[in-house]
Amino acid sequence: MTGGPAAPKTAPWRPAPGPVVCIGETMAALAPDPPNPLATAAQLRLSVAGAESNVAMYLADHGVEVAWLSALGDDPLGDRVRVAVAAPGVDVSHVRTDPDRPTGLLVKDPGPAGTRVHYYRRGSAASALGPDLLDGPPARTASLLHLTGITPALSESCRRLVTRALAAEPAARPYAVSFDVNHRAALWPDGTAPATLRELADRADIVFVGLDEAQALWGAQLSAQDVRAWLPRPRILVVKDGANDATAFTDEGAVTVPTPRVAVVEAVGAGDAFAAGFLAGLVRRATTADALRLGHITAASALQVPGDHGPLPDPRELEALLALSPRAWAERAAVAPSA
Fold this sequence. Notes:
Blueprint: E1 20-23, E2 27-32, E3 44-49, H1 51-61, E4 66-69, E5 71-73, H2 76-86, E6 96-98, E7 105-111, E8 114-120, E9 144-148, H3 156-165, E10 176-180, H4 193-201, E11 206-210, H5 211-218, H6 224-230, E12 236-241, E13 245-250, E14 253-258, H7 270-283, H8 288-303, H9 315-322, H10 326-331
Parallel strand pairs: 1-4, 1-9, 2-7, 5-6, 9-10, 10-11, 11-12
Antiparallel strand pairs: 2-3, 7-8, 12-13, 13-14
C-alpha cells in the first residue's frame, strides 16, 4: 500500500530574474575583406570583437536586459567599440574610459586551416580592470554575471577580478556566475591554464566548455561525461562537441541536443553566440533542451557571417524551430542520432 501522493517535482534551477552583466575586454578588429590570407589581402575591414560583449549583444538581440562592463581607451577605436556594442541595446553606460591606456586590437588571418588571430592588447585599458569593478553598479544589482577564461589571462588584476567574483560559495553570492572556459593558449604561456581554468570553472554556477578545448586542457581522451567528472560542482555544465552536439549536465541529468547543419563562413564568435542563446533560454525559464536549441540557433547566426555578430532568425522562424519535434530537429542535424 502506498503512503500518499508523490512529492511534487522540483523545478530545475535557473538564475534569479534580473539583468545580466557581461565583464571582459572588447577590441577593435581588422580582418581581410574578402576573407583571404592576411599576407595577400588588398584591404581590411574594421569591426569589433570580444567574447563577453558578443554574449551581451546576442542577449540583447534576444530581448534580455544586459549590460557590458569593461574599459576602453580614450581613442577613436574605443569610441567605435562602444557604439557597436551599444547598437543592439546593450547598456554600456558603466564602461570606463582610460585616458592613459589604449583600446586593444586584434587582426584576423584567414587560411585553409581556419582563422588565426593576432592580438595587440598588452597594456590595454581593459587589462587594468580589477576587483573593484564588482563593488558598484551594474555588477552589484545583477542576477547573473558572465565571465570567460580570457579575462584572468590578461593581467594579475584581471585574474583577481575573476577570482573574487567566484570567491564565495554560490549560495553566498549576490548573483549567479556563468563562466565560459574560452581557452586561448597564446594568452597562457606559463602553462598555468589547465589548473587555473579548472579551479575557476568549478566554482561557477553555469559553465560552457568545448569538448576539444577540455581535451587540450585536461586530457585528450576525455568524453563529455568525463568533463563532468572533472567539473562536478557547477549547477549546469554545457559541453559543446562542435558540429556534433551539445550536452547539458544538470540536477535533472544529462540532456543532449544535436547541432543543426549550417553553411559555415567563419567559426569565430560561434561559441559566444551559443552561450548567449543558452543563457537567454535559462532567463526565460525554458527547458534545458530548448535552451540548448536556442544556443544552437544563435550559434548558427554567427557561423554564417564573416564577423562575430550575425542576425537572428525572425521571431516566427525561431519559434517554429523551437517547436520542432525531437525527430524533426534531429533531421536537421549535422550528425544523425544513434539508433
